[in-house]
Description:
By secondary structure, the protein is α/β, with parallel strands linked by helices. Helices cover 40% and strands 13% of the residues. The strands form three sheets. The chain has a seven-stranded mixed β-sheet with strand order 1-9-8-5-4-2-3, with helices on both faces.
Amino acid sequence: MIPVTKPFLPPFEEYNELLKGIWQRNWLTNNGPLVNQLESLLAEYLQVKHLLFLGNGTIALQIAIKALDLKGEIITTPFSYVATTSSIVWEGCNPIFADIHEGTLNIDPQQIESKITNKTTAILATHCFGNPCDINAIQKIADKHGIKVIYDGAHCFGTKYQERSVFNYGDITTASFHATKVFHSTEGGAVFTSDPSLLKRMSYMRNFGHDGPDRFNGVGINGKNSEFHAAMGLCNLKYINDILKRRKEQCDHYDRLLSSQHTIRKQQLTPDIEYNYSYYPVIFESEEMMYGVKRNLENSGIFPRRYFYPSLSQLDYIDLGRNDVSETISARILCLPLYDELTSDKQELIADILMRALR
Ligand SMILES: *Cc1c(COP(=O)(O)O)cnc(C)c1O
């Protein structure tokens, strides 16, 4: 069986070593030493000023929306994982979709402009598959209308935009360190901001608002993460450069194998970036061709995924009309298997089946 992804696991002994320390200290969660160490090593690795390590990437989005005190309408992308939209609804705001650009698969700044009303308070955009949005254009729109920007950077670990980590942009960027992501801590997430007062507010929020044992600074939630998760993150961080390098080699290999296939296309990467090769999406000319390939791969025990399907504009708890580009791409896209252990033989098998299905 070849799944779309498999979590990276560090050598067991290395994780076990950190567990011994947890046992010795008997300190399992609540801002423990491993959490602190992971935060500072991540800040150093990513060259960012501040971050908070959180329970997951969804609570990161919720805390970001809450910390900016957003109300009313938030303009967002219909082409992302469901958590991007559901977090907006969960926080009592209305998601307003601006369609995506059919090349980059990111929210189209021109579409954003046309969706702004006097109720708009923010833009929540996903750097889709780790490919940065048109950050300069989005910031210009936000500045012009006095609204906030949050980036869902769940796919972006290791991606740079204009030579800096993409986590540096917007009022807040969120990340997910879920087991399926390029860098993971089993479950986990983070918020990044360069604004110290916003950081302070979010750090109260992640711990119920506690300001000491019996004082509270505003409403909070349980958004923190444990020593066990931090331990996994610390182990994996040692291997991240190897993981990113291997992803690039694997994606280059797929590119070579599929180069003669002119009926499929790839996501168009944004200029002036360093990409993390977190996913390998392929877009087919029709939904029928996508189904043909999917069926043939599945018959051989290979399981690509329809990321992202359905388009979030088709969620039944919101009723916001159509987003043609997002919906047509959703129907025709597959992410091919991509994980550290995936061998070139298996990639060749996958490419072979895909090409034969299209013949
Ligand atoms: C994975 C993901 C999330 C959610 O992160 P969790 O850590 O699983 O809560 C949010 N947005 C996007 C785009 C994702 O891919």
